[in-house]
Design brief:
76% of the residues lie in helices and 0% in strands. The protein is built from 9 helices and no strands. The chain is elongated and about 95 Å long. By secondary structure, the protein is an all-alpha fold.
């Protein structure tokens, strides 16, 4: 499954990736005007409008004895998409681990286990409130789909330029950081010197004075 997803993202099969990408974008864009049930029903009906006439055509050829009874979608019917017991256990374990990790992280952030991480999370939530006012979640999903199918291919073709740009940005950020640290070090008040220890009083002269 992971290999198939990588092949789709990197456009190694242009026809398959084009169909998947176009279908996802059109299907998600249709949700702006129609409900999810309506969109799903229309997609399935569109697929059946293609498969049903083709199946009837092959059936007609079989009746005319021009076809030895080959099903046009036999390869899809023979494809075994079921999971074995071991694979099912592995999938369930991965899902449970992901849910447990998400719940643990949310509890850690909400109940201030780390002050810095909780502040970052609060700032992120505050920014998301403004994002939610401007655009809805469906727009973000469409943008994410376009980004997933665009950025890997762009990085693969412009890898040298992108790495050069990333190095320049890192050097600029490091320069700004060092400048801020040096400025803070020059402005920071110097620590007060520790008081010198008092000299110990000599006890020998006192003892001589008493003896006299």
């Amino acid at each position: 499954m992971a290999t198939k997803l990588v092949d789709l993202v990197y456009w190694r099969n242009l026809r398959k990736t084009g169909v998947v990408f176009t279908g996802l974008v059109i299907g998600l864009a249709s949700l702006f005007q129609l409900s999810a049930i309506t969109v799903l029903s229309h997609i399935l009906l569109g697929i059946m409008c293609l498969t049903f006439p083709l199946r009837l055509y092959y059936k007609l050829l079989e009746l005319l004895r021009w076809n030895p009874g080959v099903h046009p979608f036999q390869s899809y019917l023979d494809y075994d998409s079921s999971l074995t017991d071991k694979e099912t256990v592995m999938v369930v374990e991965e899902v449970v681990l992901l849910i447990a990790f998400a719940v643990t992280e949310i509890k850690r952030l909400l109940f201030i286990d780390s002050l810095v991480d909780s502040i970052k999370f609060a700032v992120l939530l505050y920014l998301l409130t403004y994002v939610g006012v401007q655009i809805n979640g469906l727009t973000l999903v469409i943008a994410a789909v376009i980004a997933v199918f665009s950025f890997p291919l762009l990085y693969k073709k412009q890898q040298v330029r992108i790495r050069r740009l990333v190095r320049a940005i890192r050097a600029f950020v490091k320069k700004i950081r060092n400048m801020c640290l040096s400025l803070y070090a020059s402005v920071r008040p110097s620590e007060a010197p520790e008081p010198a220890p008092k000299p110990a009083l000599a006890a020998a002269p006192k003892q001589k004075a008493k003896s006299k």
